[in-house]
């Protein structure tokens, strides 16, 4: 989709979102300045506001774009895996590959973009936390289905197991930001897979 006549410089919205994604992914929500965003997107501030609204609106458009592109391995795994254990294994191993990519900023945008925000933007961090917690809840549901099907020992705490996998994924994201390679993250993933019996 391109800009409309009368709205200033024309631009491709998907290209602009991809450019903004890389800025937010690299610098975080508060670290990404308006000048960096508009420069990367190839537009001026009025065009940004007309097309996307506020910086916060742009950011959550970026999160949607990220989840549909760079981070879509998670939603695909949720849709395709028949068992919770297989889902956990796949998420961990694919995160090792995606988080350590050298083509893009390291880790996961949803995990890292608002790790530190000031009180004025706490609601931005809260929205991202809810997304992460919703993923963990969906993991727990998948593992509970395994439990009910007799695929896990009856004393398994599926919520704790899902939280452990979620914490591991978050840690792997930070490790990638700190320079961990795919091989490094795969070793972490395999330890986690062994720990949960997947």
Automatic annotation (TrEMBL):
SUPFAM superfamilies: Homeodomain-like, Tetracyclin repressor-like, C-terminal domain. Residues 33-52 bind DNA. One of its GO terms (molecular function) is DNA binding. It comes from the Bacteria. The keyword rRNA processing does not apply. Residues 10-70 form the HTH tetR-type domain. Keywords: DNA-binding, Transcription, Transcription regulation. Gene3D superfamilies: Homeodomain-like (1.10.10.60), Tetracycline Repressor, domain 2 (1.10.357.10). This is TetR/AcrR family transcriptional regulator. It comes from Arthrobacter terricola.
């Amino acid at each position: 989709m391109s800009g409309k006549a009368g709205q200033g410089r024309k631009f491709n919205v998907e290209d602009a979102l991809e450019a903004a994604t890389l800025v937010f992914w690299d610098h975080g929500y508060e670290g990404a300045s308006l000048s960096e965003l508009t420069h990367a997107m190839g537009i001026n501030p009025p065009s940004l506001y007309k097309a996307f609204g506020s910086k916060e609106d742009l950011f959550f458009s970026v999160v949607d774009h990220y989840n549909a592109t760079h981070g879509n391995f998670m939603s695909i795994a949720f849709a395709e895996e028949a068992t919770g254990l297989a889902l956990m294994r796949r998420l961990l191993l694919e995160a090792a590959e995606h988080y350590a990519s050298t083509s893009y900023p390291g880790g996961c945008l949803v995990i890292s973009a608002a790790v530190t925000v000031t009180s004025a933007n706490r609601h931005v961090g809260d929205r991202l936390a809810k997304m992460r917690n919703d993923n963990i809840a969906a993991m727990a549901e998948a593992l509970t289905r395994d439990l009910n099907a007799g695929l896990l020992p009856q004393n398994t705490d599926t919520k704790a197991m899902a939280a452990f996998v979620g914490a591991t994924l978050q840690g792997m994201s930070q490790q990638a930001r700190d320079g961990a390679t795919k091989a490094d993250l795969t070793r972490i993933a395999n330890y986690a897979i062994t720990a949960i019996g997947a």
